[in-house]
TrEMBL record, chains A, B:
Pfam families linked: MarR
Gene Ontology terms describing biological process: response to stress
HTH marR-type domain: residues covered: 1-117
Record's protein name: DNA-binding transcriptional regulator, MarR family
Membrane-spanning intervals of the chain: none
Top-level taxon in the UniProt lineage: Bacteria
SMART domains for this protein: HTH_MARR
Keyword set, alphabetical order: DNA-binding
Family annotation (InterPro entries): HTH_MarR-typ, MarR/SlyA-like, WH-like_DNA-bd_sf, WH_DNA-bd_sf
PANTHER family: MARR FAMILY REGULATORY PROTEIN (PTHR33164:SF89), TRANSCRIPTIONAL REGULATOR, MARR FAMILY (PTHR33164)
SUPFAM superfamilies in the record: Winged helix' DNA-binding domain
Organism encoding this protein: Bosea thiooxidans
Length: 117, 117
DNA sequence: GGATAATGATACGGGTCCGTAACGATCGGG
DNA sequence: CCCGATCGTTACGGACCCGTATCATTATCC
C-alpha cells in the first residue's frame, strides 16, 4: 500500500523539517551531503567513492570532499579495502546512525502535525 | 486526521527526493534557502527580512544573502515597502511558484513509490 | 528640527565548495 | 615484468556563504 500524501501536505512537511534543521543546525548538511549520508545508511554495503558518484550523478572529487566533511563531523568513516587497496570503503558510525535516526523522528513528528486538508 | 508515516518510510522518502534534487540540480538550494523559499510561498504575506530572520533563527545578513541568490535564480523578488520605506517586501514569482510546485510533485511521486514496510 | 530607534544592505576575514585537470597508488593482462 | 586501466585524492582558480561589525536610509517621538 503506497504512502498517500497531497502536494500541499508535502510542502508543509518539507518546510517544517527544514525549519527545524536550520534552527538546530548541529549539522547544516547540504543536499549532496544528505543524499550521501542516507545512501550509506539505507543501502547495503559496501559503498565506494565511485559508486556514490554514479548514484548521485556527480564527479568523484565531490564525493571525496563530502566525505571529508561528513568524516569531520563524525557521521561516517573511510577505510581502505584490504582486498583491493585501490578502493575505499565508507563505513557507518554511531554518531551517524543517531543523526539519521533523529532526522527520521523529525520527519515523522511533523507528519503527525500535518492535518488533513 | 494526521499523516501517518513510519521512520523507515520517512528516511527512504527523504533520500529519494534528495537524490532527485542532486541529480537534476537546476537549483541546488541549501537548507536555509529552501526554508526561506517555502516560507515565502506557504505563509501569508507580507514577508520581510527581519521576519524571516526571526522565524529561521538566523541573522539578517544571512537572509539578505539568501535573497540575493534566490533573486538571481528568479525564484523571488524584493520590493521596497512604500508605506514604510525602511522595509523590503519579498514577493513571489512565476518561476518560484513552479519550482515549489515541482518540489511538491517530487515528494508526492516518491511517496507513492514507498511501500508499506 | 534633532536625537533616537529600526530596517535592510554592505565590508571584512575566513572557511567551504565547485569543476577540471592532474597525481600517486594499486591492480591486472600480455 | 611492464604497460595500461582503475582507484581515490589533491591542486588550482573561482565562486559562494558564514558571523560580526558597521553603514546609509527611513521613521518616530519629543
Amino acid at each position: 500500500m503506497p504512502l498517500e500524501i497531497r502536494p500541499s501536505q508535502a510542502l508543509r512537511l518539507w518546510r517544517q523539517v527544514h525549519l527545524d534543521l536550520v534552527r538546530d543546525d548541529e549539522a547544516d548538511l547540504s543536499a549532496r551531503q544528505t543524499a550521501i549520508l542516507l545512501t550509506v545508511y539505507l543501502e547495503l554495503p559496501p559503498h565506494t567513492v565511485r559508486g556514490l558518484a554514479q548514484q548521485l550523478g556527480v564527479t568523484k572529487p565531490v564525493i571525496t570532499r563530502a566525505l571529508d566533511t561528513l568524516g569531520k563531523l563524525g557521521l561516517l568513516t573511510r577505510k581502505r579495502d584490504e582486498a583491493d587497496r585501490r578502493n575505499v570503503v565508507i563505513q557507518r558510525t554511531v554518531a551517524g546512525a543517531l543523526a539519521v535516526e533523529r532526522l527520521a523522528d523529525l520527519v515523522t513528528e511533523h507528519a503527525k502535525e500535518i492535518g488533513g486538508s
